[in-house]
Amino acid sequence: MSAPHHDAIPLLRRGFRLQWEPAQQAHVLLYPEGMVKLNDSAAQILTLVNGERSVADIVATLHQRFPEVPDLEADVLDFLEAAHGNHWLTER
Amino acid sequence: MATTGSPNAEIRPGPPLWLLAELTYRCPLQCPYCSNPVDFADQGQELDTGQWLDVFAQARAMGAAQLGLSGGEPLTRPDLIELVSGARELGYYSNLITSGMGLNRDKVRALADAGLDHIQISFQDAEAAGNQLMAGSRKAFQHKLEMARAVKAHDFPMVLNIVIHRHNIDRIGDIIQLCLDLEADYVELATCQYYGWAHLNRQGLMPSRAQLQQAEHVVADYRRRLEDAANPCQLIFVVPDYYEERPKPCMNGWGSMFLTITPDGTALPCHSARQLPIDFPNVRDHTIETIWHHSPGFNHFRGDAWMPEPCRSCDEKHEDFGGCRCQAYMLTGDAANADPVCAKSPHHHTIVAAREQAGTPLDQVPPLTYRNERNARLIYRG
Ligand code: SF4
Ligand code: SF4
């Protein structure tokens, strides 16, 4: 799997749902017979994935929110690549 | 984490994240590896719609997020659509686990409209004859194929589940290919767990080690091909623990995250636990909160104070929790014993003997006992 392209538009794969779970105090990703509890940064990124924003948009939005975080872009790209590799995401 | 010797009552488990609702034991098929209790014909009355919706709401409030709707055949419940919409409103991710019998195009559409998230269809084989041998029905195979296509046409993610045993394991490549042709998103190749009906039929179902190794080879080969083609379909191959030297961490620990409710409302920490000589609470009498945290049934095997040797002094006890309680009970007569799959168990020879038996030619093996009411009564009423 290679790093996602800047104007690629990621989308949650069909059958995947992201939601906040109060009992776990976390966002979780739900899919057929499975559930992943997301850490904060994963949730920050995935909640921006909506099938409209491009990878560049997502990075820019997070930059605005967290201007003090170094290497933010590399982290986001790494995460998106891994999420693709897990088949959580597709592209539009 | 529990420490050695702490009384069970002090252990505060996390929430039941997974709820399995066995809506009914009714089923038009008769699989000889069915996980339903062997005395299913004598079970009590099914919960009604309101009672199920109340169970869903209570478990959801405690934190349950994944909901399995199974059986028996859940499609025999006339209120299934109502239950699915209720689950959706509560915020569950709902999974329908079906044989595909009783499904038709209109129902697939209605389930999609009601907010069902995913459908799992079970197949018995890659061909009609093998399907009939196992499920006791002739027309089932064609119908299942048609329904799998309808499920995909409605944009559902689809899991195809095939129970693997000595009669179909040599065709595992054809089975995978069939699933790929049907565009499954996940393929579960599950060698049966020898509980319930499968235990009665163990000799007639368990594959030999040679068959298993060959099958693992075929699966690995398909995985490589899928990866090369960037095909997102995942192959999940569950091998029988009879060929292992350490048991599986059954249900991630007793009463740690799974909650099963049987058709009559009995609450279980695992779907096969009903066979254990333990009194399990019923949702008609107690809230889920009380059942989960305070019932003797759910606290029975929490923590590790209940463990006898060799588990008690074993440094792996927090990894596998001593294995499966049902398997320990069936093979040793005491549910607290180490799962005999473990090489440290003094009963491990029962597993070794079963492995040796697995090579017996089919014509010397007793015929399969099919899961139907007549057999259920014959076996349990004598
Ligand atoms: S395993 Fe077979 S007989 Fe048992 S409920 Fe499922 S489809 Fe019906
Ligand atoms: S002795 Fe018990 S705890 Fe240790 S590995 Fe075997 S089953 Fe697990």
TrEMBL record, chain A:
GO terms for molecular function: quinone binding. It comes from the Bacteria. Pathway: Cofactor biosynthesis; pyrroloquinoline quinone biosynthesis. Keywords: PQQ biosynthesis. It holds the Pfam family PqqD. One of its GO terms (biological process) is pyrroloquinoline quinone biosynthetic process. Monomer. Interacts with PqqE. Belongs to the PqqD family. NCBIfam families: PQQ_PqqD, PRK02079.1. Functions as a PqqA binding protein and presents PqqA to PqqE, in the pyrroloquinoline quinone (PQQ) biosynthetic pathway. This is PqqA binding protein. It comes from Alloalcanivorax xenomutans. The lineage of its organism: Bacteria, Pseudomonadati, Pseudomonadota, Gammaproteobacteria, Oceanospirillales.
Automatic annotation (TrEMBL), chain B:
Pathway: Cofactor biosynthesis; pyrroloquinoline quinone biosynthesis. Its EC number is 1.21.98.4. It catalyses: [PQQ precursor protein] + S-adenosyl-L-methionine = E-Y cross-linked-[PQQ precursor protein] + 5'-deoxyadenosine + L-methionine + H(+). It comes from the Bacteria. Its cofactor is [4Fe-4S] cluster. Interacts with PqqD. The interaction is necessary for activity of PqqE. Belongs to the radical SAM superfamily. PqqE family. This is PqqA peptide cyclase. It comes from Alloalcanivorax balearicus MACL04. The gene is pqqE.
